[in-house]
Amino acid sequence: MGAENKTDEEKQNGDGTLFDLNDYTIIKEGDAEILMHAKNEVFYNKTQVNNRDMSVAVLRTFISQRKQEHEAMLTRRRTKAGNKVPDAKAEIPDDSGQHNGESNDGSEVLEDASHNESCSKPEEETKNLRGKGREELKPPRVLEALSASGLRALRYAREVEGISQVVALDNDKASVEACRRNIKFNGSVACSKVESHLADARVYMLTHPKEFDVVDLDPYGAPSVFLDSAVQSVADGGMLMCTATDMAVLCGGNGEVCYSKYGSYPLRGKYCHEMALRILLASIESHANRYKRYIVPVLSVQMDFYVRVFVRIYTSASDMKSTPLKLSYVYQCTGCDSFHLQPVGRTVSKNNSVRYLPGFGPAVSQECSDCGKKFNMGGPIWSAPIHDQEWVAAILADVKSMKDRYPAYERISAVLTTVSEELPDIPLFLSLHNLCATLKCTSPSAVIFRSAVINAGYRISGTHVNPLGLKTDAPMDVIWDIMRCWIKNHPVKAQPSDQAGSVILAKEPVLQANFSRAVASLSKAQAKKVARFLPNPERHWGPKLRAGRQITSKHVSLLGPKALNGINNHENGDGSNHEDVEEPAAKQ
């Protein structure tokens, strides 16, 4: 560490000025260490260790996948060049067009002038195929657009092999000073790879189009104001990592605010957290489409108090036309748990050509066919898969092989395990407890309900968003028939005839459910008793105050005096002056 060569009393900031180390607390996470001042000048949240660990794991897999894709592309080009060798006068075709996510960036393709030369010098042939400077894959550059203390950027630089540069931005002078101080504190590796700039992230990304292979957005609140510039700053085939912590807005607390920020209207169902993920993905896709770009999600998770998505961005005007096929509106019944999706677009194929047309509608009638109530409409949301299961498997394998390198290994491995078992092509989910609450009945066990769905010929899985959530391709009439059959064996008290549950139970089931236990009723993780949903490691595991704000006496009624002192001690460090902790509360 760079700090070992300095005295215990005084160190140097990134700008060369001295500071007293006794005023700071050293926080270690992974291979990085940062200095946090006793005052809340620069934002730091311990809770986000899950977020940072997940990002490090995805970044490692991205670098590996990027290298494999590059080698596969070179192999294809050499093969095509070999097929053209007998014709000495033929030109090598330009295969730099969009193929499996590789976009046409205009790289120069040179003419193969000599058959003998091309056969004897495959390296030069590769150079001709790829254009000047394209025969080697350059190490990726990473942009952390909102760096604060720089902890995330330092972890990327110190823990992920193969990164050439990490650019950390912030428009707060104190944060940039803290970031530069932490870069120097972390020694030569950090100094050689990480650079910090005082800049508006939106302006910086707009003035550096397609320059970064990875762009990381982790704002305090909504990322919506950064998305337009972020999708332009990512290189073709690069990755955008984006966090949204404004869950009250995304989950339907303020639907009109969500629409103004993200262009979608949320619904307040049990699936609201997954809908938040899909609203964020739809918003990113919308911004990307304006520049003839589109996204491919590789991992989308809801953890703690936020959602986090990892998407790759490509450029292709033709592939961009498929966006309406990936978006849907959601109709949610106000009386029961039935919901239906209405795709925005559809395609018609004729004579090897594809026409893009509006989606058929309406998907539902004015009244719910199950309970007779009205529908609320939300969306549009991303209804295509939100994970790439091959990526998820690769990320999980990497995490398990390097468990000592991840401070939050238990949590992120549990989330990834649950994600790996989700049905990838089923948007949103049902809650078994909500179904039973509608019918006022006792709940069958998850195994029994899963078995009934499987025995009826449909698929079903859990979801990482909710321990009680169930994803299935079974239509709602089948789900209600299963519940009707269950209630025949477990009768309920009579309810008023106008209630949704009474209307549903008044109909006879068309499907006779089979509740005998199915082999696939338990997932592999459940069968092996692998922990999938872990409790928070400590109390008050959630959002922290913005930088510059202090905890005051108004928090006592919510947290209690002991908890308030504990949070202040955590913010200020064990070695800080405890009288300073009490002072802000006494002023209010």
Automatic annotation (TrEMBL):
What is the stated purpose of this protein? Dimethylates a single guanine residue at position 26 of most tRNAs using S-adenosyl-L-methionine as donor of the methyl groups.
Record-stated family: Belongs to the class I-like SAM-binding methyltransferase superfamily. Trm1 family.
Disordered: where is this region? 67-136, 562-588
The GO annotation for biological process reads: methylation; tRNA processing
Q: What CDD domains does the entry give?
A: AdoMet_MTases
Q: Which GO terms describe its molecular function?
A: metal ion binding; tRNA (guanine(26)-N2)-dimethyltransferase activity; tRNA binding
Alphabetized SUPFAM superfamilies for the sequence: S-adenosyl-L-methionine-dependent methyltransferases (SSF53335)
What InterPro entries does the annotation carry? SAM-dependent_MTases_sf (IPR029063), Trm1 (IPR002905), tRNA_met_Trm1_C (IPR042296)
EC assignment: 2.1.1.216
Name the reaction it catalyses. Answer: guanosine(26) in tRNA + 2 S-adenosyl-L-methionine = N(2)-dimethylguanosine(26) in tRNA + 2 S-adenosyl-L-homocysteine + 2 H(+)
Keywords of this entry: Metal-binding, Methyltransferase, RNA-binding, S-adenosyl-L-methionine, Transferase, tRNA processing, tRNA-binding, Zinc
Composition bias of kind Basic and acidic residues appears in 112-136, 571-588
What's the protein called, per UniProt?
tRNA (guanine(26)-N(2))-dimethyltransferase
